[in-house]
Batch of 3 targets.
Target 1
Amino acid sequence: MDDRIQHKDLTNLKKKDQPIIIFKVVREAEAILNACREMGIVVTAFCDYEKRNTEKNFCGLEVIHTPDLPGRFKKARIIISSQYVSDSIDQLSELGYSEFYSPLKLLENYDVNKYKHQISNSYMKTQITSCTNAHKAYLDGNKIFMRSLDVMITTKCSMKCESCSNLMQYYKDPQNSDFQKILNEVNVITDQVDEISEFRVIGGEPMMNKEWAKICYGLIKDNPERKVYVWTNGTVGPKEEQLELLKGKDINFVITDYGQFSRNIENLKEKLTKYNLAYVATEVRNWVDCSSMRKHERTAQELQEVYKQCCAKYLYTLLDGKLFSCPFIANAAKLKAISDNPANYVDLYSDVEIIKKRIKRLVGGVKFLPGCDFCDGRPYDATSAKGYDGKGMIPAAIQTSEVLPYKTYK
């Protein structure tokens, strides 16, 4: 049990002596705000480390850039909406805050059908479940908990972004992963962990794998309570029979809208609505520059700082029978751009006891990984992160006509 965050007594949140801040701007934060208002809790503002989230109001309230929060409010009571609970508390503690609240009690009786949210109510219900699962696991402390598992089903992509953080721009011979092999490997992981809050089917572009719908169906066939998300760039129009297989299932689609490049996005939305499949579409015009692979020769202390600030270190990634902590190391290893170091991953075809021990270490017992030395960094706040070697925020989805070259390190 972690005593840094309160989750039962919300009495102090109703007091008017300090501002109430919700950290951070995630989709379920809208539900948390509604629940606060139902309980007579007056929220002053949101705050977020991502600068782009502060460019406009959220649900009618100001969004403050987190580093600027102490200058605005020296003291504040903070409700953690983020599913990365430990990181959130660590970041805010460094700014001098000490009074944190979990949204568990706020959301326990929340009726999604009472409101019209910015996303569909079915999608909001899924987000709330993921949020509460993450907070419960954090408060328990004894569970092997994964906030998400990226099930990477292909390295093929319908776009060729020169600064893709998942490194698709470097693949000369992209391949699809085998349907049954993926499901078998997922089962190996789930047999050794207490809970995975959500499964994210990704690529490349996952719909480039013709078996993408079968994989999604396989993930929930015997486990209908699982939360499955398909991350797509809106370029591929799925076939009717693929969506028919998933009709009415708890499969959620996250559509990244790249404007002119997402040429099938409206067709995709229409089809998903037709088959009663929840989706959310988000415009992306800029992203963090974090696609270079190079050896930095960082000290252990410097690597710890890069890992500490990384926003992708909990994007556990399944690729080629191995479980990695993030998609960068997973794809850098597959490309053989970095040396094969067993400390970077869990081999899912090793002994069962070894698998469980190594998953536990990967999920909760590392301060950095050897592969981190080849990454420029992927910080929560690319504008002011220490040790970040990228160029900050850059235009998203700039296309390259050729596969990009890269150096290999042994």
Target 2
Amino acid sequence: MVNLKFMDGLIPVIVQDATSHEVLMMAYANGEAIQLTQETGLAHYYSRSRKKLWKKGEESGHFQKVVKILTDCDDDCLLYQVEQKGAACHTGYASCFYRTLAGELVGTKVFDPEKIYGKPGH
């Protein structure tokens, strides 16, 4: 087991589709979230804004089955390779990286966030 380097108790997690290799999202995890991910096979993260653990898909049903967890060369960032059910982004897009820096929409909208969360996405 590698010795992960957490900053303020958290480590960044890049999430990638295990088949297409598309980058789906970026989130943070603490030790407990990583342990739950390993135990259940479903992605768990730590929400900095809500200050609590969360399981991806617990509200939307858009779960992430983790196929593999990789660490970078410095052991300060993780890569989750996942089988994504539905969309990764809470805004309804397949990936959180759905627009260019200029604001051009380049992603695919998968669902209406208002129907799931009761409020529109960003």
Target 3
Amino acid sequence: MSLPGDEYLPSADLEATRAITIHAPRSHVWPWVAQVGQNRGGFYSYDWLENLVGCDIHTSNAIVPELRIRAVGDEVNLAPPAALKVVAFEEGQHFVLRGAVAADGTNGPAPYDFTWAFVLIEDAPGGTRLIVRERYAYLANWAGALVEPAEMVSFLMSQRMLRGIRDRAERPSPAGA
């Protein structure tokens, strides 16, 4: 199915779509999704593995309103020197990140363009389907040799991220919250 963000790279060379059903309303899932990022609430994945390569990730187990993505133009870091920009945003429903990170981990020239969409869809009553989609458009003929092996790692990290968000969103809310 078409998702927000697909229009930025209509002829993607690689697309990976992953999803999870969360037994919580979208209003309980969104705050966790909206604080994703190295400079925010982390990636709810394997921090120790990300930190082995210098990402300085510290996943939050609490919703911190100050860390929330709020609008188009906000930056979401993958690591301290590498940020993606929010290019589409609809509060409570989706946001799309775009950018490319050079081989040295900076926002310098990269051999591909990239989007990463986070979309929440109402599921069965009281449930949410969280969908994440990565799309890559190769700008150099050798880009696939860089992106495709990294995509295997992304699969593992994304699966853990989806479960991490699910586990947090499905936790009972404290009384009075």
